[in-house]
Amino acid sequence: MTTNPQHTPALAHLSVLVSGASVAGPALALNLARHGARVTVVEKAPALRGGGFAVDFRGHVHRRVLTEMGIWDEIHARQTHMGPQSVVDADGVPRVDLPAAMMSGDVEIFRGELARIMYERTRDGVEYVFGDSVTALTETPGGVDVAFERGAPRRFDLVVGADGLHSNTRRLIFGDESRHLRFFDHYVAGFPVPNHLGLDRRGLLYSEPGRCVAVSNYDGDPERAGALLVFRSRELAYDRRDVAAQKRILAERFAGMGWETERVMAALERTDELYFDAIAQIHLDRLTRGRVALLGDAGHGATMGGMGTGVAVVGAYVLAGELALAGGDHRTAFARYESRVRDFAKGCQKISGNAGPFFAPPTERRIRSRDRMYRLLASRPLAGFFRRLTEKAATAIELPDYPAASGHPAIPDRPAVPEHPAVPDHPAAPDHPTAPEHPASADYPAAVPGSCAG
Fold first, then answer.
1. Which fold has domain 15-441?
2. Of 33, 28, 60, 58, the residue nearest 398 (C-alpha)
């Protein structure tokens, strides 16, 4: 999809509302804008969020998509350069050392950096509305009438939900989340901690039966690191907005755990940047209904596992490309999008299905078995096996040649919308993790060792 300024934009007549500005939303906005569509992105958070977890890309499909989007070189320039990671015992002695090349894909970048790259590429040709969210969707013969929490009602030709695992768009179209969410008997939490271990682009993971604590430093900051906690549990009833209740759950589950857990939990008490969620997946029979489509985690999300960001970006490329190929005919485009993406996404979900018990095995025997497996995977004969396995899933999709893109359109006259705050200056590269994800459009944490959100 090379840019051709003399080519009539394939989607110049099309208006699209995208809900969510984490990664999937800006990725779709960039691809749609390159085909001339008039795109509005609405995000419940008050501004573009920085920080977040490390995500990775691997294989020729990811590289092709990111190259045609025009952002591969910038992603490569901003990669984390994460070093080796280790599984340790209660005394901090490494039991297994895992090379960075085995776990981090071809390129690894912080989620906030990736979102900012795409936002900067689209901000002049895409309308971003922060601090608002969709409350109702009504399809009509001429489009979708959208009601907002704050802004005036508007009509769009199409609506795309790119608002994460707990998608509001999906709820409005496909019903309550409980009908589509598959719980995997584990929970995960992430938050910043002081770098009291003196880590420099390295991660350490310690497991006891049914729970694990990992501490990583992804950017060499001598002061800050990030903690990731995983524990086995029946499904819990809690308010996702009640951070204090989530901290109490974690304090109870990790009481008395060895290694550096006491210092990690002390940091938990002080933080206001907690991410906490079930390890779960979304399973839907369809990704579209009428003029509404789901993208990324909203349609086939997984809390942990290593493929979510790549699937979202590839899905955004395919959805925009199919709309361009069909000249904006959403019926044809949506059918082709579903056909191309569904099996690809399901294959990537399979990689993540055992994330919980892998990081928090239920017994000491299972922990020892996990460590032996890691040791084998890190050995010279099998050094590339895990990498090839994940790359096979990441490349299991055939991409057609879509119409040539034609650059970024200017934003046409539109009804007044709520004024959103300026995007704040990007802070120094964050640790893994740094900031909590907004429930409306969250990406999910990388499993440690290794970046598994990508």
1. FAD/NAD(P)-binding domain (3.50.50)
2. 60
